[in-house]
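cache lookup: miss for this entity combination. No prior model stored, computing from scratch. Input as submitted by user K.M.:
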Amino acid sequence: MIKDLSRNVKLGIFVFAGTIFFIGVLYMIGSKRNLFSSNILISAKFYNADGLMSGNSVRFAGINIGTVKNVEIINDTTVLVQMVIENKVTTHIKKNSIASIGTDGLMGNKLVNIGSVSAAAETIEEGDELKTFKAISAAEMMQTLSATNENIKIITEDLKQISSKLNKNNSLWNFLADTTLTENLRQTIVSIKLTGDRTAYVAGDLKQLMAGVKEGKGTLGALLMDTSLSKNLSQSVVNIKLVSNDLAIVSGDLSNITKGIKNGEGAVGTLLMDTTFVHNMNKSMENLNTGTKGFSENMEALKHSIFLRKYFKKQAKDKK
Amino acid sequence: MLPKVLNNFFDEMGSISRFGFRFFKEGFVPRYEFREMIRQCYYVGYRSLPLVGLTAFIMGLVITIQSRPTLVEFGAEDWLPKMVSVSLLREITPVITALICAGKIGSGMGAELGSMKVTEQIDAMEVSGTNPFKYLVVTRVFATTLMIPLLAILGDAISLYGAYLGCNIRGVVSWQLYWNQVFETITYGDLIPSVLKTFFFGYAIGVIGCFKGYYSSKGTEGVGQSANSAVVLSSLLIFIIDLLAVQIIDILNLT
Amino acid sequence: METKTDISKQPAVASTEIVISIAGLHKSFGSNKVLRDFCLDVKRGESVAVIGKSGSGKSVLIKCIIGLIDPDSGSINVLGNEVTKLDHIKLDRLRVKVAFLFQSNALYDSMTVRENLEFPLRRHWVNTTKEEVDVLVVEALTNVGLAHTIDMMPSELSGGMRKRVALARTLIMKPEIILYDEPTTGLDPITAREISNLMVDIQKKYNTSSIIISHDLNCVKLTANKIVMLIDGKNYAEGKYEELSKSEDEKVKNFYI
């Protein structure tokens, strides 16, 4: 009987251990998905869910604070994403926080990022709906970039024409007399400034992307598979290069013009009177500088990135 | 009508199905053989744990080491715990556990019941006021059906520990980070179906082992044969059940 | 009625009460007709030996009597119960009174001698306390002279000892009828004689009726007071040992070589 009892005890321990472990695993999985902690439910409406699924994590300040509970199409332009957020972090999340769909690393799971905004607001509550922000994807970035290139091309074309007109003495007078033209010039310069800003922004993005690509070696394989993307990329890089070359020429021309204007006192009396114009002119020069600087940085980054190395090497060869 | 091979095959299949149904028919009406059942649970469960544990541990370790080079190639070394834990939990540990048990328990039952049959112990039980099917078969099938899942769960734990060690042979993954990553990755959809199918594995091992023993042909040769064919058939059946399970899980979208 | 003899080793005399009555028994396995219209009556206290060639259906006969094998047709009446028509509860009740000694002893390998002997007691819903069970086990083992083996495993025993333990197990329920399936097969002549003597002792002590399946004539001579020859599935010849030994029939004579 004693033998029997100890055998029963052993069996009991065995069964107990198995059951406890099973329950333990169930609990661990559940707690990772916030099934047992106290939660609140919030939502956000997106234009594009971007492959987000229920069970994906929700991050605030880079920390997992909850999971996506449900993704549901409301109408043809809106997707409702419901999220379960841990109760204890709700004191840090404001009502005006912005939700965006992102990726864990370059190839990881989709997730919802909640970003805080500096403006003051109340803390979030059950059932609140967050504003959303569409995060830029690599493909969209490329699109913006090529559009920007187009713009720059057009503008430089205009500038070229203008400066060639300026170079011709007789037309200078016409030009100076023509107030609409000055207005145009001013607008053009404003445009250049805008473009410069945008280019800098895009170049920054591109640099970040490149850095990401360089770091995530593993994802490179997958990215390289996408030949159309890299082709696009090199195309746009070529464009950027051409444009920045043009820009350099144009800015050279422009400085010549201003010099001319400064020297030719009588001729540009009106022009000198307009201090704002000179100021604008200076500023746009500056912007152009930063713009081109951005481009060259950009180029540098591209040169170092692995999949464009080949292209640059080839270019160097061709120069020889 | 049918060729002999086919006829034998279907005959066997029919007999096994009948035997399996008889378990349900007789298993849930009194009298219940609790003492014997507990004894069998002890043998099937507790006594198999060292073997299952060792195999699960080695599998966890080996699968991890083997998976590393591929992941390194993709630069996704960090994914090692995630990938290994899912494949261990979903497939490798349950099946390895079941196969080991088919080898140990299935053959044991085939041989034990076979020799009992040959030496008329089964008849003697019937004469002694005992339903041998209940006393021998029902208890054993119950034991395997309940104990194999438990063994598989403990095997899961041990194999995950093996995988932890495997992750730390070349790389460094802290204890806490490892388990965090594991539990981050696995879902109920990974765990529940994999545990559910082990019940069927256990049932198959019990039924086949007992069937082969219970209808063992006379003589010592018959005993060896029934032990052998019990192992072969139950191992095969485990894979068939596994195949069915994966289809059903897929259809029900439990992944 | 047989004449009483004072030879101590002769079986006790049977009464007129019939305990087993078999009529028109048929059993076939596939195309092999093992039993064809077999008839036999056994009286209380009588020991009937059934002899026949191997495969002649002797074992099938007694397995039919205890309900392990269902006959194709015919009636088997044991202690007033029609065996073929009993449900398993009544059959179990009948089996308390009818014991069976298996050819291969059928001792449970996984149990000790004590547990082996306790098994039928516990399983037959007999209301006995633990102390009573212990007493019965010791008594049964003492009857066969093996009280010292009580905590051994069957695998530790010799062939003769196992047979005795098996006999003790059949006795533990104090049966009215004992069916012996080749009790001396596989034993050396001396042990076989010991077992035969033991069977006679038991028969006298408890006044049991018995059917003895055997082809060992020495055993049969010692233990049986009636011999039945099972040839071609029938009760071919019946009588006392000496009567049959004088028979002129070829088939009967074959056994006495």
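stored under new cache key. Residues 1-12 of chain C have pLDDT under 50 and may be disordered.
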